[in-house]
Automatic annotation (TrEMBL):
<feature type="domain" description="Aminotransferase class V">
    <location>
        <begin position="27"/>
        <end position="405"/>
    </location>
</feature>
<keyword id="KW-0663">Pyridoxal phosphate</keyword>
<dbReference type="Pfam" id="PF00266">
    <property type="entry name" value="Aminotran_5"/>
</dbReference>
<dbReference type="InterPro" id="IPR015422">
    <property type="entry name" value="PyrdxlP-dep_Trfase_small"/>
</dbReference>
<protein>
    <submittedName>
        <fullName>NifS</fullName>
    </submittedName>
</protein>
<dbReference type="InterPro" id="IPR015421">
    <property type="entry name" value="PyrdxlP-dep_Trfase_major"/>
</dbReference>
<dbReference type="InterPro" id="IPR000192">
    <property type="entry name" value="Aminotrans_V_dom"/>
</dbReference>
<dbReference type="InterPro" id="IPR015424">
    <property type="entry name" value="PyrdxlP-dep_Trfase"/>
</dbReference>
Length: 414
C-alpha cells in the first residue's frame, strides 16, 4: 500500500476527496460511476474554456491549440501502450464503441461476430445492432457466474475461422473482475488471425495495466471521467487497418480522420493532465528512467494499493469483520478472486440493496445500487438477484475509509 505521506500527497491532487460540495464530509466509494477529478483537470478546463480562438487558423493562438492536440494524441498512445493507428476524441466512450464496432462490422469480410455475456451494454448493444445490419451471426460466450469473468479458454471454445469481429470487456463495472486481455486476444488470433478485435477498457483504465500493442487488438476505448478527467468526451485508439476501413468523414477531408467537427481543445489538454499525473506517480513509487516505465510502475502501485483495500473490505482488518463474515452477505465474483480490480459488489439476504445504500449515505459513505436492468441484468439475472450494492474504490481511498465502511456495515446488518 502507499505510505501515509504519499497517500496524503495523492489525495491532495484531487478535488472533493473528503467533502461532497452538496452534503459535506463523506467517503467516496462510487468511483465506478465516475472517479474524482484531478485539480489540474479543473484548472485546465477553466483555462481552455476562456480561449476564443479555434484550431486550424493562421495565428499564434490557433497554432498553440494544435500543439496541445498533437501532444494529447501522443500522450494517449503512451497511456495505452499503442503504436501507430489513430487516436480519436469523441462524444463519450459508449459513442466511440458504437463507432468502432459499426465500422468493423460494415467493413470486415464475411463472417460471424463474437462477444460475451459479461460485457457492458455499450459494446454488447453495439455489436448486436451492427452484426444484425451487416448480416452476421452474433455469438455470445456465457461468462462464469461464480467468478464474474470470461476466460481465454471460453473464447477459444467459441471462436471460428470465419469470426470477423470480436469484442472484449477488459474489466466489468458490475463484478469488478478483470479479464485476461492478451490471453483472450491470442485465443482469437490463433483461429481467426484477421479478426477485428475491439476492447471496452472503460472500467479498467484507472485500475490496471494497459498494453494495446502487446495485446494485438484493433481498438481500445476509455471514458476519461472514469480515469480522473471530466465528463463530455471519450477517447479511443484504432489500429491502422481499422482506420483504413470506410467510416463517416467529410468529403475531400483529411485521409484517415475519424473526428467530425471541432472538438474541445480543453478535452485534449485535460487528458494530458491525466497522463502527467500517472507519470508523476510512477516517479514517486519507482526509479524508472523512462515515461513508459513510470506509467507501468504507477499502475502496479495502484493495483497493489487497491487490492489491499479490497482484501480488507472483504476479509476484515483489525477487529473489524469483513463483508465475507457479515450475516447474509454474498460477494459477487467470490471472496478470493485474483482478478478483482478496485470494486466489490454484494448483496445481503433479506435486506433491500437500496435500503443499505441509503443507510451508508446517512453514515457519510457514498456507494451505489446496481439493479437488474439493461446495465447490470446480464450479471444479476443469472444470480437470481434484483439488485446489489456496488462499492467502488480508487487508489486515493484509504484504509481508514474502509474501516469506516465496515463499521457502518456492522451497524446496518447487526
Amino acid at each position: 500500500m502507499f505510505e501515509d505521506a504519499l497517500l496524503s500527497e495523492i489525495r491532495g491532487r484531487f478535488a472533493h476527496v473528503e467533502d461532497c460540495p452538496f452534503t459535506g464530509k463523506r467517503v467516496f466509494f462510487e468511483n465506478a460511476g465516475g472517479a474524482l477529478t484531478l485539480n489540474a483537470v479543473v484548472e485546465t478546463s477553466t483555462r481552455f474554456a476562456a480561449i476564443p480562438d479555434n484550431q486550424g487558423r493562421d495565428n499564434p493562438a490557433s497554432r498553440a491549440l494544435v500543439e496541445v492536440i498533437d501532444r494529447a494524441r501522443a500522450d494517449v498512445r503512451d497511456f495505452l501502450g499503442a503504436e501507430g493507428g489513430s487516436v480519436i476524441f469523441g462524444e463519450s466512450g459508449t459513442e466511440l464503441l458504437f463507432r468502432l464496432i459499426r465500422d468493423a462490422c460494415l467493413g470486415a469480410g464475411p463472417g460471424s461476430a463474437l462477444g460475451s455475456t459479461v460485457e457492458h451494454p455499450a459494446s454488447r448493444s453495439a455489436m448486436a445492432r451492427w452484426a444484425g445490419v451487416s448480416s452476421r451471426r452474433h455469438v455470445l460466450i456465457p461468462h462464469d457466474d461464480a467468478t464474474g469473468r470470461v476466460t481465454p479458454d471460453a473464447y477459444a471454445a467459441h471462436v471460428m475461422p470465419d469470426t470477423a469481429v470480436a469484442t472484449i470487456l477488459h474489466t466489468s463495472p458490475v463484478t469488478g473482475i478483470g479479464m485476461d486481455l492478451p490471453g483472450i486476444a491470442d485465443a482469437i488470433r490463433a483461429v481467426a488471425p484477421e479478426c477485428f478485435i475491439i476492447v471496452d477498457g472503460i472500467q479498467h483504465a484507472c485500475h490496471g495495466h494497459i498494453d494495446v500493442a502487446g495485446a494485438g487488438v484493433d481498438g481500445y476505448v476509455i471514458s476519461p471521467y472514469k480515469v480522473f478527467s471530466r465528463h463530455g468526451y471519450g477517447v479511443a485508439w484504432a489500429s491502422d487497418r481499422l482506420t483504413a476501413l470506410a467510416h463517416d468523414a467529410l468529403i475531400s477531408g483529411p485521409e484517415g480522420n475519424w473526428e467530425l467537427g471541432t472538438r474541445d481543445t480543453g478535452a485534449y489538454a485535460t487528458f494530458s493532465d491525466v497522463v502527467s499525473y500517472f507519470d508523476w506517480l510512477g516517479a514517486q513509487v519507482s526509479h524508472a528512467a523512462t515515461r513508459t516505465e513510470r506509467l507501468a510502475e504507477a499502475r502496479r502501485a495502484i493495483h497493489a494499493h487497491e487490492a489491499a483495500l479490497c482484501q480488507a473490505m472483504i476479509h476484515g482488518t483489525g477487529n473489524l469483520a469483513g463483508l465475507a463474515d457479515l450475516p447474509g452477505v454474498t460477494v459477487i465474483g467470490g471472496t478470493d478472486n485474483a482478478g478483482r480490480e478496485g470494486l466489490v459488489s454484494f448483496w445481503a439476504e433479506g435486506r433491500p440493496s437500496a435500503e443499505i445504500v441509503t443507510a451508508l449515505n446517512e453514515a457519510g459513505i457514498r456507494t451505489h445500487t446496481r439493479k437488474a436492468d439493461h446495465y447490470s441484468g446480464n450479471v444479476l439475472d443469472p444470480l437470481g438477484q434484483a439488485d446489489c450494492i456496488r462499492v467502488s474504490l480508487a487508489h486515493y481511498n484509504s484504509m481508514g475509509e474502509v474501516r469506516a465502511f465496515l463499521t457502518a456495515m456492522r451497524g446496518i446488518l447487526g
